[in-house]
């Protein structure tokens, strides 16, 4: 009996397996049925698949192009549109530019801009034993240009003006000669050579803007033009307070400097200085005028001469002599 039971169980397990296999076969998809045309032309299936792939690639390429175009549009720089300038505005701009170029400059300023490394020498000499005259000299290309004046700055101005005048005269004489030479050379040159040379605006090394500035400076000086000062209304004008001097002469004037004491007693007094002899030993003279009376003082220096002039003035008006105090 036990053997029969085992056989039955084995048989039953085999039946279950067969049943499971039949169920799996029933669940499979139906087989593909090919038509006669497809059987005759099997390549058409592959062509359809390749066409689908090509369409997908085309779509991808179009998407990429759209992305590139969008990025290019973002990266492009949009420059502002040029605005048309009116003729009046063009003239105003040209006038402003010319004003900057033709700024008035003195001969010394023009010379210092053109020749920075060239020194200007100064020498002084006594004229008729009365005053000192300064002589400024400039040496360029072996030629010396000089200018004389009582002031050092004005002597330099005259020397620079003489040099610039000669420089401009040379340039004015050279211009017609150069035109004739250029006209003759243009006749000799062949057409092939002239055609190969680049054409452009004429070039020149002469500093015309500097001379235009110098001409403007001389014109303003000749016309004696001065900058316009703003006139304030009468209500807002404030008169400076009057500075009064000392009411009484000090009890101990020896404690004061004579020049300082004179300024305190009469504010606004002016001194004029003259050079008697500039060589060794030098001698200077200082004069001042007070209440219609002129006083003078001499000394080896300007300071000493001014002190003597103040001592003489104080002695005349207040009867105090600083020399007697110094001797004590």
UniProtKB/TrEMBL annotation:
GO terms for biological process: regulation of regulatory ncRNA processing; siRNA processing. Residues 175-190 have a biased composition (Basic and acidic residues). SMART domains: DSRM. Residues 175-204 are annotated as: Disordered. Pfam families: dsrm (PF00035). GO terms for cellular component: cytoplasm; nucleus; RISC complex; RISC-loading complex. One of its GO terms (molecular function) is double-stranded RNA binding. Residues 257-319 form the DRBM domain. It comes from the Eukaryota. The keyword Lipid metabolism does not apply. Keywords: RNA-binding. This is Double-stranded RNA-specific editase 1 isoform X2. It comes from Sipha flava (yellow sugarcane aphid). The gene is LOC112680357.
């Amino acid at each position: 009996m036990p053997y029969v039971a085992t056989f039955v169980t084995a048989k039953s397990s085999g039946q279950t397996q067969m049943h499971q296999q039949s169920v799996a076969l029933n669940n499979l998809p139906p087989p593909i049925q090919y038509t006669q045309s497809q059987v005759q032309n099997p390549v058409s299936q592959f062509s359809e698949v390749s066409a689908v792939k090509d369409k997908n690639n085309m779509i991808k390429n179009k998407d990429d192009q759209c992305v590139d175009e969008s990025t290019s549009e973002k990266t492009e720089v949009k420059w502002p549109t040029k605005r048309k300038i009116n003729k009046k505005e063009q003239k105003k701009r040209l006038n402003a530019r010319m004003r900057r170029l033709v700024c008035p400059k003195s001969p010394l300023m023009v010379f210092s801009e053109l020749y920075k490394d060239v020194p200007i020498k100064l020498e002084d000499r006594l004229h008729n034993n009365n005053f000192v005259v300064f002589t400024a000299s400039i040496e360029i290309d072996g030629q010396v240009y000089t200018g004389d004046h009582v002031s050092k700055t004005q002597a330099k101005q005259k020397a620079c003006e003489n040099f610039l005048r000669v420089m401009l005269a040379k340039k004015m004489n050279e211009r017609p000669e150069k035109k004739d030479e250029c006209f003759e050379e243009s006749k000799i040159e062949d057409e092939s050579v002239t055609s190969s040379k680049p054409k452009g605006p004429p070039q020149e090394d002469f500093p015309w803007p500097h001379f235009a500035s110098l001409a403007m400076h001389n014109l303003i000086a000749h016309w004696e033009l001065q900058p316009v000062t703003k006139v304030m209304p009468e209500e807002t004008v404030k008169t400076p307070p009057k500075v009064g001097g000392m009411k009484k002469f000090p009890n101990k004037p020896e404690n004061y400097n004579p020049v300082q004491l004179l300024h305190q007693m009469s504010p606004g007094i002016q001194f004029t200085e003259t050079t008697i002899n500039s060589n060794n030993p030098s001698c200077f003279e200082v004069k001042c005028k007070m209440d219609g009376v002129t006083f003078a003082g001499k000394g080896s220096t300007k300071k000493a001469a001014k002190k003597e002039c103040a001592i003489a003035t104080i002695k005349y008006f207040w009867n105090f002599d600083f020399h007697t105090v110094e001797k004590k």
